[in-house]
Amino acid sequence: MDINGKEFYNAIKKEMTKSVVGNDEVIKLLTVAVLSNGNVLLEGFPGIGKTIIAKNFAGLFGLDFKRIQLTPDTMPSDILGFYFYNQKKSDFELRPGPIFTNILLADEINRTPPKTQSALLEAMQEGSITIDGKYMELPNPFMVIATKNPLEHEGVYALPEAQMDRFMFKIDILAIDKQDELEMLNRKQEGTFKNTISIISERDLRLANICVKKVKVSPEIMLYIHNIANASRNDNRLLYGVSPRASEQLMMASKALAFVEGRNYVIPDDIKYLFKYVLIHRIKVKLEYEMEGLTGGKIMEDIINIEVPK
Q1: How confident is the model at residue 155 (pLDDT cuts 50, 70, 90)?
Q2: Whole-structure pTM value
Q3: Helix (H, G, I), strand (E, B) or coil at 65
Q4: Residues with Cβ < 8 Å from 217, sequence gap 6 or more?
Q5: Which PANTHER family match (predicted)?
Q6: Phi/psi of residue 176, each to 5°?
Q7: Domain edges within the chain
Q8: Could you identify which of 113, 163, 230, 252 might form a hypothetical disulfide with 36, taking C-beta atoms 3.0 to 4.6 angstroms apart as the criterion?
């Protein structure tokens, strides 16, 4: 049974308005990510609503949700779990960490050291983890939504390139506009903000995932994706371009976007809309160009203007 993608997304958008004002684009991208099994990095200054958006988005699906506040002393075992000796059973027993969930909110991921950040790598790519040499499958679906504060420079750690490459999207959450902020203040005063409730069953989410897989990507669109990725790898202003994983995730995200737009095929505009969210965090501008004020976003805008399939 097929699900109407537009109706699916509109239901999500409508329910999210109970807890969030504005940020429609963020809600759409999170929907695309959950439909294409992608992880998301939300970046924005404190108080912008990153945690509220992530928590209430997770509440839409009736899935298991856990949140972990990452700090400099967070250990990998705090995320994954660990084995302890149960004296009553005279055997070792697993005490599972918060990663055993469907949607994990990793708050302020850049506050924890790279060793702890790396505990998420296998989970984000494979949907599994290894504890003391024992392989374990995670619940399906599994998604990480991480938040990052770009303003702080003390007591924080850069995310390694390998970690960044596991995020399908990096989304910058900006301040809402005047009208939305006034609406937020009024609703706060009136007490009309509410947490979202589960409106999409796990079954419907799985059916939607199946519908996304049926969305067609033409050979011309695939070549377009390759040409974009390849142009980034050969741009002399960049230390490195994007990985083949980025190409794959751009294609999968474009299928999900086409689905929520009510189409069963991908068009070039899907790629143009998504490329900055999929690719910008995977490239590195050379220092000499960075000092001249050139940004990765400007370079990617140049690259996206390569020949577009008709």
Answers
A1: low
A2: 0.91
A3: strand
A4: 251, 254, 255, 265, 266
A5: MAGNESIUM-CHELATASE SUBUNIT CHLD, MOXR FAMILY PROTEIN
A6: -75, 160
A7: 5-187, 215-304
A8: 252
